[in-house]
Predict the 3D structure of the following.
Amino acid sequence: MSGSTDRLQLALAAEHAAVYAYGVIGAQLTGEELGWARAADLAHRQQRDALSDLITAAGATPAPAAPAYRLPKPVTDRAGAVVLAVDVETRAAAVWRSAIGELTGPGREVALDALVGAAVRGAQWRSVASPGKPPTVAWPGT
Amino acid sequence: MPSATRRVRSVTPPVLTRRHVLAGLVAAGATGALTGCGLVDPGPAVPAVAADPLESLVVEKQALVDLYDASIAAHADLAERLRPLREAHREHRDALLELLDAQRRAVLARGTPPVPGPTASAPAASTDRTAALRALRTAERTAAARSRAACLAVTDGRGAASVAERVTVLGCISAAEASHEVALA
C-alpha cells in the first residue's frame, strides 16, 4: 500500500499546486474563459479533497499545501494564463496516469475521473492557447 | 487454466462488430483447440485461451476508425480536424491488441481483411456536416463510457500485461475519448 500512498501524495501535491495556479490564472481571464477557470478550480479542489480522504483511509497523513508555488513563468496577461492552464492540466494528467494503475475500488474511480477531467480541460485550454492546432493528445498524461 | 464455463461464456460476440472480426472470433472457437498443448484434451471447439473482454473494445476502436474514415471522405473540410482523432483511435486499437494474449491477438488478426478499406458493414457518414459531427460526438461519448467501465472492471492481468498496465491503458483511452468532444464541438 505504501507505493500507492506515495503516488497519491504526489497527485495531492499536484492538486494543491493546481488550485494555487488557477487563482493566478483566473485573475487574468474574463467571460467564458474565466468560467472555465472557475470550474477547473472547483474540480481540482474536489480532487484534492477526495485524495486527502483516500490517503487518510490508507493510514497516512495528507501533505498540506505549500504557502506559495513557483510558476514556470510569471503570468501577467491572458496569453500567459491560458498557457499556464495547459501546463497545469498536462501535469495533472501525468500524475493521475502514473497513480491509476496502482489503485483499486473507489481510489481507481477517483483517479479515472481526475484523468478524464484533466484531459478534457487540457484540450479546452489548448484550443484557445494554440488555435488551429489539434487540441487533444492520443495518450493523456504521457 | 480457466474453467470450461468461463470459456463458454467468454465467446459471446461483441456488441459492436464488423463481419470480418466476428469471423475471426468464430474461427477461433473452431480451431483454437488445435493449438493447445494437450496432455489433457480440452475437447473440440474450445479455444485454448479464453476470449478476453478487451477484444470487443478492439472491435469498437476499429468501428470508430471506420466512422472517421467515412466522415473524412464525406467532408473534406473537416479532414484536418478529424485525422488526429482517427489516428488516436488507431493507436488505442493497437495498444489494446498488445494487451491481449498472443494467441487471442492472432485470432483477431486473422479476422482482419488483408486489404484495408470499406466493407459492406462499414458505417456511413451523414452528408450533412452538423449531423456528421453530432454522430461522431455520440460515438465518442459511448466509447468513453465503455472504456471507463472496462478500466474500473479490470481485476486480473492477462497475456503479458499486468493489472496496472491494463488499468492505465484503459484509463488513458477513456480520457482521450472524452477529450475528443472538445475537438468535435
